[in-house]
Amino acid sequence: MSAPDIHSARPSFASFAPPQRTLMGPGPSDLHPRTLAALSRPTVGHLDPSFVGMMDELKVLLRYAFQTENALTFPVSGPGSVGMETCFDNLVEPGDTVIVCRNGVFGGRMIENVERAGGIAIVVDDVWGETVDPQKVEDAFKTHPEAKLLAFVHAETSTGARADAQALAEIARRHGALSIVDAVTSLAGCELRVDAWGLDAVYSGSQKCLSSAPGLSPVTFSEAALERIKGRSRRVQSWFMDLNLVLDYWNSAKRTYHHTAPINNLYALHESLLLLAEEGIENAWARHARLHRMLRAGLEAMGLQFVVAEPWRLPQLNTVYVPEGVNDPEVRRRLLNNFNLEIGAGLGPLAGKVWRFGLMGQSCREENIILCLQALAETLNALGLPTDGDAAFASAHAANTA
Predict the structure, then answer these.
(1) pTM for the whole thing?
(2) Most buried of 40, 110, 269, 382 (most Cβ within 10 A)?
(3) Which residues have a Cβ under 8 Å from the Cβ of 323 and sit 6 or more positions away?
(4) How confident is the model over 295-320, as pLDDT tens digits?
(5) Domain boundary, last residue among 222, 251, 277
(6) In this structure, is residue 323 part of a structural domain?
(7) One Pfam family of this protein, by short name (predicted)?
(8) Same-domain check for residues 37 and 119
């Protein structure tokens, strides 16, 4: 069988030139010019001494972002889903009972990870858009005292709801269990204190509030989690994610080959973490909170209603109901085609019912909010839903200067 003739089939092949978008969906977020420039730096070998030094700096910078002193803190080569699997594959053994909180899409993925690792998932369900109920978790531990782990999502990207990570981790500790925490959307976007809150295994993503290129998953493990990993009764089922092997690559004293790391992506993550350190982690949290208030005021002035109650609402992921009678896909299509603005659609039972507005990292800027409010008001008016854009701008400005 002969190979296809690509020249006759597609004679116009050329270098890909992506459009310039403003990313205000659930991720990825816009990249800072310094981070983009870092991606274009010369590639070196993954065992090159200069690269090894940069990797050691990465670990220190990530400890700052996570607010932890955990020695085992590094970026896994792969997106947040790989970070998730790394936590579950290393900490869950066949037969282990794991209490899993589900109030959105990503809690559901945790359940599947437990089951694929051979564990028994005890599911604590809450309504999508609501926070995790600590009392339900307490009751689950009382019913299942054999549970060894508690898994929950700190920032549920599918709804924009935040969980009380500190309270949930404390419940797990009282019952002799470790915690696995999804911080994919929370890291650098809202308060997250791994050590102060006693979190044991936490994973995140490079493409959300860190505003780096997709493809890396920062993780951190407490000493208690590391002891459990080292004391496993059987090998981790995944060779690639077995931390007993990966640690030898990230150990600067005796670094050995494990896999070829995504070198240029690591440059970008290093640069984005430098930007975070320069701003200050608490200043970054405050910026996301302040600009969330600005966006919220503008959206509410348009008559849009938030899904999540204010005490548990994420500043970096704003979810509102689609107005009745409005064509959800058509609005998002027009925003993308007419304004180069990307927002997110709903997932699962919220599909077609909500819009998700991301304010993450480099995307969390005043000019993005102004563009978003202008584009949304013009689009809704064009589709026949009277929307007062001037009132939205005035409300947003007042909230930002209050």
Answers:
(1) 0.95
(2) 269
(3) 303, 304, 380, 385
(4) 999 999 999 999 999 999 999 999 99
(5) 277
(6) yes
(7) Aminotran_5
(8) yes
